[in-house]
């Protein structure tokens, strides 16, 4: 079997050593993840503004597709909070919530996003994920978490309120606050309190009554299911429907019908930019979870293979009536902690969800939406993390600005502009920082061959020589700055100055713009009777320079070391 | 007088030493530039799709405004080829050519662009010009030159043909080729041949008959005026109008009326993106001319002051019925070569153009458009320069891709998308290049304290130590690559490996994303019993690291030099 085929279909790799022990582990993990996934799938469909059953549909075939192509053994794909919110935002622009067009636009979004991910994978664009810096991803997820939590408050209050940004959410919530439904509020608040307690207080309690720590942790994952059962029973017993409590309502029974989404090119072009954003965010979220988990077991995740696998999962979601999916953090961690060894756990989970779609849908009719909203709120509060702001503030102003721009633009302009602003901000800040490199005038430390900043050390200098160390690769964004900096140094010196030596220790590249600038500098210095020399030029930089006629125009020489340069150029009388 | 005021109003500086000699030089330059500017102004108005008089209007007040605020003493502002083409493209999207709305949209564009430039100047955004790399600017100007020359062929042929991209221009020219007007074609071709000859053959001829080289060069600048006079006389004598030759037609006599452009916010928002592009391109073109000329006389040009001055020039153009202007290359060089000492030359030039608007407009009626088209074609052929492609091909693949993307996207998608694609390509390529930094495994050169690449040099290494030199600052785009590279190195070693030392000579910064990656590396190596050390960390990087708890988590130490690190960590038995 070729290496290529095993790369394309990772199961060929892990199925070889598969045994009964692995099957037992995978089965246990599948049971736990299924129990956790049922309420989550329903809730994220609600968050995306879609019928509850679409959440189940998005949790069956996509898991199988990822199991076939995915390079992570423990990643669990399906609807996730941030991607569901982005779907709601994008689809809301082309169709009214609740309309038939809304659901089919969400399906089209999954198809489009899937096709884009597969395309990016085949083109080996996996490295593009690197353009999302840590402050941007972290800030974006925190801000999205706040928006998601606020958007779900309306279900807890039982009011109609919409909005996708902090100001619209707060103002619509505020205006309708007093129209709240008492029973809904009590149910939702009780669910919230219980779920928060489950997360912090249940596992320790179970430990104290004799469960092992891991068993207690697993049992605590069933908290959301327990809340669903209790509130559904309450809903039936107290006839919530007549009390004005919003219920999930009719959910079609059975498995999703396969269908090829309609080829609506006009719709696709409207959704294209949003689909690209969802693809990139989904990919980055998924691959970072996948890498973290793989690292713990010394396995490897291949970014390009992940693009293909997530693409296949989204196409699978689209053809089975689901919406955009990706690898989720919480579900994957649960899967991993429950002992999943391979993607067979996900295959079994898909079977579990399919069983739920066949058997449980009639009882979902009575489930209050407030319960689902409570599970969402509890889930997303773990996404909200302000510690990075503090760290960035202490560490570097650039990172601090990037995280603040991302958080504020996401909160105030919505998720799509938010992530775009974040990416633009982090790239611009990086370019800005490298456009003004640190340039030190250096001199020789007496008795050594080392050159150090003249402002920090007692060093030997000569009136006829200025040695400059440029602490950055020279490229278009800093070529002009470098040029001006050299002229500024000359302006401070008198006519004794005859040599400028650029120490290129930290210059890893010189691009064409910087080369033009260096030629301009050479020319101008020559007119003033000053020679320009280079020292410690790195091999690849020298190779590139030798392919041009720059070295012929250079008034001075290229020295192997700064020490040799000074020895050769220093005035004989001063030596 | 405060330094601040002299920075804001550069005339306060140069007026102090003003004398009769300077006045004589400035007057001569003004005469020559005026003669050159009259046909150019009319031609660029034609290129922008505007009535000829708007070209004159754009060459009066803007020159005065720049003279007051500009930091270059010899820059000459007014309509220029590339900006006129960009204006035609942008305004053509919101109004039909020749309509009243078209002219007022062009005026609004000047106002908007002026406001943006002033705003950017006050915010000190001058460094943003650096984002346009040399390959992008050069490729963009070459491609624009091709498009401009092709677009003017229709006036030489006397046909109707439109288009703003290479394919549309060629196809419309081809389809109507045989509808050419014979008299127009003869006039235009004769003008073209004469102008090309003037550029190359006239000056040497004048030298041979006894003129000094500089006088011959000056006289050759009058070539376009001569062509205008001759073809206008031919047009009157042979009654071109009845022969179907397109003439400039009625040009209102007199000076422009001041008016405040209408406050049409809907129009402004439609033009905003184009106005930003025009502003940036105009600024970059102007400031590069200004810097080149200033350098020749050891003067300085301040980028932020230039933004304000060009903004003022554009606002002045808008209130006097003109269109977007910037500092032009050819006119500024002529001004400089003619001996202009200060901006008073431009003030006098403005007077000259105003005189032309008062006196010459009646005769312009008979001027064939083919003559103006010929002056444009001859002017822009000097912009077309393919030598950079060859240089970039030899020098670096990155620069080659950037220049080709810019040229091809400008030719095939038009000027606006062209410049955007160019900027995006050069930034993406830079990020891509730095996202995969060169990482060398190094060892000590025997008998020295120097460390070199083990693949290139015979060096001392130990099985328990791997020294890695990372030749790039660590930031979000390469954090993941660095992490993977370290893991790949470990995977190749056996269990004797105990220490990884990162030599940070070329690491000028570590951003938060890279810090997170380093923490992940530390953690993972610790689990495998390997310690991570740093050496030769630069001062500012160390300062930032000390503001976090990274150094507390670091399993190893931070050494001042790679040599000290190896001395401290090498096994005693092996030493």
UniProtKB/TrEMBL annotation, chains A, B:
Keywords recorded for this protein, A-Z: Membrane, Transmembrane, Transmembrane helix
Residue ranges crossing the lipid bilayer per the database entry: 102-123, 135-157, 177-198, 219-238, 265-290, 344-366, 372-393, 400-427
Subcellular location: Membrane
Principal location listed in the UniProt entry: membrane
Segments forming domain STAS: 455-569
InterPro entries associated with the record: SLC26A/SulP_dom, SLC26A/SulP_fam, STAS_dom, STAS_dom_sf
Keyword presence, Transmembrane: yes
SUPFAM superfamilies: SpoIIaa-like
Membrane topology: Multi-pass membrane protein
Pfam families noted in UniProt: STAS, Sulfate_transp
CDD domains per UniProt: STAS_SulP_like_sulfate_transporter (cd07042)
Full protein name: Sulfate permease
Upper classification of the organism: Bacteria, Pseudomonadati, Pseudomonadota, Gammaproteobacteria, Cellvibrionales
């Amino acid at each position: 079997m070729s290496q290529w085929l095993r790369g394309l279909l990772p199961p060929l790799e892990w199925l070889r050593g598969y045994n009964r022990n692995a099957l037992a582990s995978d089965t246990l993990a599948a049971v736990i993840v299924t129990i956790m996934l049922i309420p989550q799938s329903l809730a994220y469909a609600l968050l995306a503004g879609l019928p509850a059953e679409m959440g189940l549909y998005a949790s069956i075939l996509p898991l199988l597709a990822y199991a076939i192509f995915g390079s992570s053994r423990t990643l669990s794909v399906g609807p996730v909070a941030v991607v569901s919110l982005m779907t709601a935002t994008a689809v809301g622009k082309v169709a009214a919530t609740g309309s038939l067009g809304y659901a089919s636009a969400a399906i089209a979004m999954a198809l489009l996003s899937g096709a884009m991910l597969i395309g990016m994978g085949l083109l080996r664009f996996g490295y593009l994920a690197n353009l999302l810096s840590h402050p941007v991803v972290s800030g974006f997820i925190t801000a999205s978490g706040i928006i998601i939590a606020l958007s779900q408050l309306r279900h807890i209050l039982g009011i109609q309120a919409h909005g996708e940004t902090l100001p619209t959410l707060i103002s619509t919530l505020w205006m309708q606050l007093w129209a709240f439904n008492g029973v809904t509020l009590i149910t939702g608040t009780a669910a919230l309190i219980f779920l928060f307690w489950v997360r912090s207080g249940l596992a320790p309690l179970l430990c104290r009554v004799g469960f092992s720590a891991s068993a207690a942790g697993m049992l605590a994952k069933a908290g959301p299911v327990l809340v669903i059962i209790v509130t559904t029973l309450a809903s039936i017993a107290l006839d919530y429907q007549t009390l004005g409590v919003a219920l999930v309502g009719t959910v079609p029974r059975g498995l999703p019908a396969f269908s090829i989404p309609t080829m609506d090119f006009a719709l696709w072009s409207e959704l294209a930019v949003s689909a690209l954003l969802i693809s990139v965010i989904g990919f980055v979220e998924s691959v970072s979870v996948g890498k973290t988990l793989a690292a713990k077991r010394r396995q490897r995740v291949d970014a390009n293979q992940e693009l293909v696998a997530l693409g296949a999962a989204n196409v699978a979601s689209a053809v089975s009536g689901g919406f955009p999916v990706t690898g989720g953090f919480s579900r994957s961690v649960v899967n991993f902690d429950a002992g999943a060894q391979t993607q067979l756990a996900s295959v079994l989970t898909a079977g579990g969800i399919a069983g739920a779609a066949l058997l449980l849908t009639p009882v979902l009719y009575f489930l209050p939406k407030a319960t689902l909203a409570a599970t969402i709120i509890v889930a997303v509060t773990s996404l909200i993390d302000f510690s990075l702001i503090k760290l960035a503030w202490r560490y570097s102003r650039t990172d601090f600005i990037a995280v603040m721009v991302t958080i504020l633009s996401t909160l105030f302009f919505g998720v799509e502009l938010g992530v775009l602003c974040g990416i633009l901000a982090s790239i611009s800040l990086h370019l800005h920082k490298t456009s003004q490199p640190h340039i030190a005038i250096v001199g020789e430390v007496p008795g050594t061959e080392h050159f150090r900043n003249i402002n920090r050390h007692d060093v030997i200098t000569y009136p006829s020589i200025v040695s400059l160390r440029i602490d950055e690769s020279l490229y278009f964004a800093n070529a002009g700055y470098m040029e001006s900096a050299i002229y500024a140094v000359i302006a401070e010196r008198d006519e004794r100055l005859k040599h400028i030596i650029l120490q290129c220790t930290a210059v890893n590249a010189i691009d064409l713009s910087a080369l033009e600038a260096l030629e301009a500098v050479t020319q101008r210095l020559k007119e003033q009777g000053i020679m320009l020399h280079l020292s410690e030029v790195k091999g690849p930089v020298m190779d590139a320079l030798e392919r041009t006629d720059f070295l012929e125009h250079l008034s001075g020489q290229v020295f192997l070391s700064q020490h040799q340069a000074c020895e050769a150029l220093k005035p004989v009388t001063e030596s």
